[in-house]
Amino acid sequence: MKDILIGIDAGTSVIKSVAFSTKGKQLAVFAQPNSYENLPSGGVEQDIARTWQDTVESISGLAAQLPDLVRRTLAIAVTGQGDGTWLIDAEGEPVCPAWLWLDSRAAEIVDEMRKSPEDRARFELTGTGLAACQQGPQLQWMKRHQPEILEKAVTAFHCKDWLYYKLCGDRATDPSEGTFTYGNFRTRTYSDEVIADLDLSAQRHLLPDMIEGTRQHGALTLAAAQATGLPEGTPVVLGYVDVICAALGAGLYDPSADLGCTIVGSTGMHMRFVKSADDVVINPHATGYTMPFPVPGSYAQMQSNLAGTLNIDWLLDVALGVLSSEGIERERADLLAKADALVAAAQPANLLYQPYISAAGERGPFTDASASAAFLGLSTRHGYGDLLRATYEGLSFAARDCYEAMGDLPKEVRLTGGAARSKQIRHILSAALGAKVRTSERVEAGAAGVAMMAAVCLGVYADMADCAAEWVTPYLGESEAPDPELTAIYGKTYALYEEARRSMPPLWRSLAQRNGV
Fold first, then answer.
1. pTM for this model (two decimals)
2. Using alpha carbons only, how large is the chain's radius of gyration in Å?
3. pLDDT tens across 250-299, in order?
4. Where are the extended beta strands (E) located within 195-298?
5. What's the Cα-to-Cα distance from 143 to each of 118, 201, 465, rounded to whole Å?
6. What percent of the chain is modeled with pLDDT above 70?
């Protein structure tokens, strides 16, 4: 009986193959590390051929855990890290290493393009702010500085597209990444106007066809079957980009609710489920992202903070440094275990913290490379617990800032990411947003989301709503309602936070210039 769906999530540093039953139970997972190289130029590259081999190893590792995997596999579905540029030639061989989403070589080109009068028209069509991580600016950099690469290239992939090609031999991408950089999100098609605004009309032939993974699939080739050990002809589903699949697996989709989803990780990702193209909010600052969602007519809007829990890590590391100077050795986990108690004991809204600790500044819901972190209102009466609480609050206010750029605040936010296990983070975020929160217990949300697409594609479920009812809802924690008293306090404090944030850019730039940044 074929009753296993394999979800592959090819991240930046780890590729995971996860086996799920057709009813959504996780059966086994195997993680295969991969690697990338940081170049002095700001480039960040990954070996394309090795990424395929690492994926094969992850499938083999999964098979070792489930001896009957080969017999039981119904389909393979693949998602992966977004953005970046993976170029192959006519024979299907890489023409250069992959450029990852971390690559900053196109930053100056992006600054130039964002000042162009055409940028607003491009944003209106894509619903997505331009960034150096995207394939369009990266191709433009190659066009200007290494045209010989583009002359050899026949197809421009993203990570998951490359793996899909190696699995089934089809050159394709999906609507989330296809429209993200080059398309009209309303029609889920490429836009010649956007491609022209990116000055890439001559490179239009590099863009593969977009396919919808909930409706069509490829078949495992003989070569891929020999490499993976799985049967030739096994259905292969091309998923949406990893952040969309993670949101799907963590619970962003529920047709009966007004939902948001926040990934509480090193980077803070905030997503809003939008039921129609007409409801997408096109903000005046041309920031954030709009992507089709694997449900007909629906979308996910996103805003992301460059530094999420990195702010907490920084503060914990400061404390560790002080302890170490006194000969006391502790691990970050030791301090983190006690952090919730310190935060709970501190008074709310005693300080304002601006959580822009990343050396790269901020990108959501505003873009400012010179943005920096700050405690406001600090005095001798404040202690370490006050600093921790202010940091938690600052992250929550930054989340609200992002959600407000996407429209009305959602009535419920589904949480995922390691820090979502903190009771105080959930309590403070809920009050700052004035929304209920529910935490997903799914550890491999991205792999689950892409496997859900396969389940719908192959008719295991009639639609995504039926699939989510079995794959998502049982893995959500209890609904936690916002504390009314704390919500009132944070409503007033957020106004101060927003006022401070809007007044800081001149100071940020002066400090950056003084420090030679």
1. 0.89
2. 23
3. 999 988 888 999 988 877 889 999 999 999 998 888 888 999 999 999 99
4. 209-210, 218-219, 235-238, 259-264, 268-274, 289-292
5. 19, 12, 44
6. 100
